[in-house]
Amino acid sequence: MAQQLRGIRTREAILDAAAETFAEHGYHGASIAEILEKAQVTRGALYFHFAAKDELVQGIFARQVTDQGYPQRMYKLQELVDEAMALACRLPHEILLRAGAKLAMEPRLQKLSDGGPWEAWAERFAGFVAAARERGEVFPHVEPDDFGRFLVSSWIGAQVVSEAQSGWRDLEARISGIFSYTLPTVALPAVCAQVDFGPDRGTRVLAELGRNVGGAASEGN
């Protein structure tokens, strides 16, 4: 068990180091030597977990879409907004997300993971929309897959512009703006009026998630 735990920690250290290196230099500018130095592992340890540079990319892509345990809401559209805006809040602070965003801009690398993280996010967002349609939250003509892809495309554009202009400081506000213009076109008016997509929504959702996790930990002690 101890050996297995060490193996998991070594793999995570390598992925974190690779993400930091890719985020700084991109795929082609990143060197295995720098990843080894950052991870403080041997070349043999790295190749035990990742046989090639492409496998490091696949490992980072696999960590992009994860179940964060966000609170359930009355409306599935609110859950969609919460996840999209929490992602905007997390991106500047989580190296794996930043590396994934940078690597996903390289078309060849997307082939390593069936379209990269963007396709996975589109499918996840489409799932929220499909559930919202079943509950009667959106207009009948709304196609979940189409809206999922549209939302991800808009999110990517906002992320690229935000990075260039403010280092992602205004990303959450930009994603809020996307929802302010798109939700009224897909959500029933009575539902849209109750969905919170304020510019600090992601920050508040993550704070709530942190309180819930902290409370659960306290109850377990």
* CATH class category label of the largest domain: Mainly Alpha
First-to-last CA distance: 24 Å
- CATH homologous superfamily (4th level) name of the largest domain: Tetracycline Repressor, domain 2
Flag low-confidence runs.
214-219
Could you tell me the mean pLDDT?
A: 89
Topology (elements, then pairings):
Elements: H1 2-29, H2 32-39, H3 43-49, H4 53-62, H5 76-90, H6 95-104, H7 107-110, H8 116-134, H9 144-166, H10 171-186, H11 189-192, H12 201-220
Task: Provide a descriptive summary of the structure in words.
The chain has 221 residues and is mainly α. It folds into two domains: 2-51, Homeodomain-like (Arc Repressor Mutant, subunit A), CATH 1.10.10; 76-220, Orthogonal Bundle (Tetracycline Repressor, domain 2), CATH 1.10.357.10. Helices cover 74% and strands 0% of the residues. The chain contains twelve helices and no strands. The protein has helices at residues 2-29, 32-39, 43-49, 53-62, 76-90, 95-104, 107-110, 116-134, 144-166, 171-186, 189-192, 201-220. Helix 5 packs antiparallel against helix 8 (116-134). It is elongated. The two termini are 24 Å apart. Mean pLDDT is 89; it is low at 214-219.
